[in-house]
Amino acid sequence: MSPMFVLALRSIGNRRLSVALTVIAVALSVALLLGVERLRNDAREGFAQTISGTDLVVGARGGALQLLLYAVFHIGNASNNVSWPSIQHIAALPQVKWLVPISLGDSHRGMRVVGTTAEFFTHYRHGDRRTLGFAAGRAFAAAPDGLFEAVIGAEVAARFAYRVGQQIVLSHGSLGGEGGPRFADHADKPFTIVGVLAPSATPVDRAVLVGLEGIEAIHVDWHGGAPIPGLSIAPEHVRKFDLSPKSVTAALVGLDSRIAVFRVQRQINSFANEPLTAILPGATLQELWALVGIAERALLAVSALVVVVGLAGLVAVVVASLGERRRELAILRALGASPMQIFALLALESVLLSLAGIVLGMGVLYGATALAAPWLAASHGLNLVLDWPAAGEWRLLAAVLGASLVASLVPAWRAYRYSLADGLTIRI
Q1: What pLDDT digit, counting tens, does each position of 402-412 carry?
Q2: Which of its termini does the chain have fewer beta carbons within 10 Å around, N or C?
Q3: H helices, E strands: number in the chain
Q4: Where does the record place the ABC3 transporter permease C-terminal domain (predicted)?
């Protein structure tokens, strides 16, 4: 170990309190900067991996972002429904390989209820085109055998300690939470859990999946969004009714060839019988990032300003200590240290403090991530990954270190200008 390095460490050790406070300030600013960057990247990665292998998302005429957020991510307000004959027409198009309808609107203890078909478990892809796996049980069967069967996501099972074989009650509307407001419960027609999905880091983890016929069955004695007074049809009698869906929220569409995606999109958008919208999930996500990009950059700029304030505090502490260290520096000069060596000593001290702040900040970030990750995943569906810093994070750390090196030149230059006579002169 070089004498310069040892001297810098001992000098820092003589000012433990001020140094510790300075390092903590730098660490918190670095943790905030990296936290914002990681949160942004993980959010984008989570959104991008939610759905893959789906060429088009079809819904009622409206905004593309609203359709994507509501139908795929279960965020935002409900969009208009699409009639079932229109869905059948789209499924019959020669370029369409598969179609999975989705019906939203009900909930269970704050979790979305998704009405769909058993093909959902076959054609829904996430990440690098991975299918949904089962931690326990199986997919719900087709009606009428699986009329009141349900498959729950991993987070639903973990949060409420559900297991295969238990019965659950769905609520009308999507406002019902754990003790929150809801319109009414379909208590007379409970569903039996037949499967628990493995974690997939998608909105499916926080969903209850049932058949489309099951959605129709629990509303057979309802009209206009409310129960019909004096009418209650028992579950065993519901099977006698026509439970074919009247409408659905949206549909996920896969094509035989991606070359035909724009042609099919134009066909659906110009459908004469009903105003429809067909969107490309990837392109719509890019629109979303373009909208939130300004907010992301603003938040990152604020975090960078916090880092600048932390480095400014570091410089202030080192400069303020120069008055107390005038004789120390003068003694070093008397022992043969050159002005450039004094310059290097002060710069090295500042850089060491910055490095300590960066290391501590990363420790704070990883600790906070480990503590907050389960809550963020359960409450907001955001999955934070404990991993080595990405390339963008390394660039930010290099920028912070470079900025600290530049900032260290201020106290180093002042120390450089101190002369031996100035250090030994008694000031009155």
Answers
A1: 888 888 787 77
A2: C
A3: 14, 18
A4: 301-419
Cα–Cα dist 349/258, whole Å: 59
Report field, pTM of the whole predicted structure over 0.85: no
Judge if 386 and 268 occupy the same domain: no
Q: What is the token pair recorded at 127?
A: 């990440």
Distance CA 335, CA 293 (A): 57
- Of 216, 244, 279, the one marking the end of a domain is 279
pLDDT beyond 80 at 190: yes
Do 396 and 306 form a contact (C-beta atoms < 8 A)? no
Whether residues 96 and 243 fall in one domain: yes
Both tokens of 280, joined, read 């490309």
CA distance linking residue 249 with residue 110, whole number of Å: 19
Q: Note down the domain range covering 154.
A: 56-279
pLDDT in tens, 97-114: 999 999 998 889 888 999
Q: How many domains does the chain have?
A: 2
Q: pLDDT higher for 245 or 373?
A: 245
Token pair of 358, please? 């960066």
Residue 256 covered by a domain: yes
Pairing of strands 111-116, 207-211: parallel
For residue 187, give Cα distances in angstroms to 105, 163, 167, 184: 17, 19, 10, 9
Query: Same domain, yes or no, for 38 and 65?
Result: no
Is 67 contained in some domain? yes
Q: What are phi and psi of 123, to 5 degrees?
A: -100, -20
The count of other CB atoms within 10 Å of the CB of residue 273 is 9
Mark whether 43 and 65 lie in a shared domain. no
Q: Does residue 426 surpass a pLDDT of 60?
A: no
